[in-house]
Amino acid sequence: MTAIPEARRAPALPTAPVLTIRALEARAVDAPLERPIRTASGTIPRAPLVLIDVLTEEGVIGRAYVFAYTPATLKPLVAFLTNVESLIKGKPVVPFERARDFARAFRLLGRQGLVGMALSGLDMALWDALGRAHGAPVARLLGGAARKLPAYDSYGIVDPAADRALLERSVARGFRAIKIKIGDGDVDKDVATVAAVRAIVGTEVALMVDYNQSLTVPEARRRIARLAAYDLHWVEEPVPAEDLAGHAAVRAGSPIPIQTGENWWFAADMQKAIAAGASDFAMLDLMKIGGVTGWLQAAALAEAASLPVSSHIFVEASAHALAVTPTAHWHEYLDVAAAVLTEPMAVADGCVTARGPGLGLDWDETAVERYRL
């Protein structure tokens, strides 16, 4: 057998101890956002987050967070995670095995909603712990490498006149795509907003719009037909996320590609959406798709279906997951945790790059105490 030349061998990961889970800590914070998120379905003025720390016997701590959308869910999420500690204490940090444990433990209840959010966040923390133990980015543990990913700057509902400087700043920072939310008024308002934003960002920047599930199928068709003149990259969630048949119906007659997926729970939901023909693209949310472990399963489905995959929030962890996704498309730059991190995720020439070790995030404990609930 011919030996592989030294220069062609993949660099080995540093040796690391087998990690054993000692404890699980969860803390709630209500962090400020750089830009409040206004949508057709409601406004998110601040970022309610649950910070997760998996402590190991070997001294390594795995970190991740979940985005609770509303402060009303913070207390139950923290309580649930606290109770889950008994299911994982003393077990090794092996994300795939722990995911199987959770699937069995919650088979009768199901893994949607707060349960799915908590389990996905815990999965991310386990992968972070592994990366830290090896001194490597999670992307490398997954067989890939940290690489530049094209990102789009993600806005809520905008006032083109008042927000002109912000939109121009996004273009100046190198973003080659921008997403805005619409649907808070009639179709004429949608058209006026899209036309004004297109004029501000120019024709070289991809422009996406998000209806946040606010329309019926007939109304979505009517509005999309009016927006077709503005060269939109996609229309996101025009109808309720769970209405796969509705998305398929809108897509069938749409002159603009349809995007959905951020509300798919684990790979099983994605499989149903693919079977229904619900979307031209796939937008995966690490907190709902099952963390990094669930993302890998979903990425395989996307490759088989030739669906381009974009991320939804979780800018740090998503940079690792997208880096090993065969059909990687866009990274959504919507940084909800910057206020409680020692080093927020950076953008360079409109791109983001995964960092390590682990998922590359550390808590600013002074800020955590300031915003802790």
Describe this structure in words.
With 373 residues, the protein is an alpha/beta fold. The chain folds into two domains: 21-135, 2-Layer Sandwich (Enolase-like, domain 1); 140-365, TIM Barrel. The chain is built from 13 helices and twelve strands. It has helices spanning 74-88, 95-105, 113-134, 138-141, 164-172, 187-201, 217-227, 244-252, 266-276, 286-289, 291-305, 315-323, 365-371; strands spanning 21-39, 42-56, 61-67, 148-157, 177-181, 206-210, 232-236, 258-259, 282-284, 309-311, 331-333, 351-353. Strands 4, 5, 6, 7, 8, 11 and 12 form a seven-stranded mixed β-sheet that branches. A three-stranded antiparallel β-sheet has the order 1-2-3. It has a two-stranded parallel sheet with strand order 9-10. α7 links the parallel β6 (206-210) and β7. α3 packs across α11 (291-305). The longest helix is centred in the first third of the chain and has 22 residues, at 113-134. The chain is globular. The N and C termini lie far apart (62 Å). The model is unreliable at 1-10 (pLDDT under 50).
